[in-house]
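Re: the request from the purification team.
They wanted to know what the chain is likely to look like in 3D before they choose a buffer screen. I agreed to run a prediction and write the result into the notebook, where they can find it.
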Amino acid sequence: MTIALALVSVFTLLKVLVDGKMGTFGYVCLAVLVLVQALGTPMAARRAAAQMRGPWTVRITDTNYHLQTAVNQATVRLDAYRDARFHRGFWYLTSPTGTSFFPAAVFTTDEQAQLAQLFAHRLPRRKRPWYRPYS
């Protein structure tokens, strides 16, 4: 669908460059493009949210963590991450290539405290900028 919309957009742009005006076809193509984007994005988000509601299995050791969902599974070493933060019920693990997350609700309160301590000791300390004006 994305490729088809990109081709329609390119064709419309070429038509404008050649004819100097968009014409009815150009306006219809742009309307379809906007409509598909307006409907497609929320539908994709709903589909992803439905997949995320399934059961999560998280196993964390001193060296890695294993995450299994209804959609995917992964085993990742903790030293691949640079930072761990807790925000709105999720743990976000940041690496140079992106961010992974898992829900904190799979852990008890004591386990969450142990997890925070593990991340504090296993992950490298965050570098503080040496120049901080107005602080």
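For the purification team: The chain has a mean pLDDT of 78.
Please add any questions underneath this entry.
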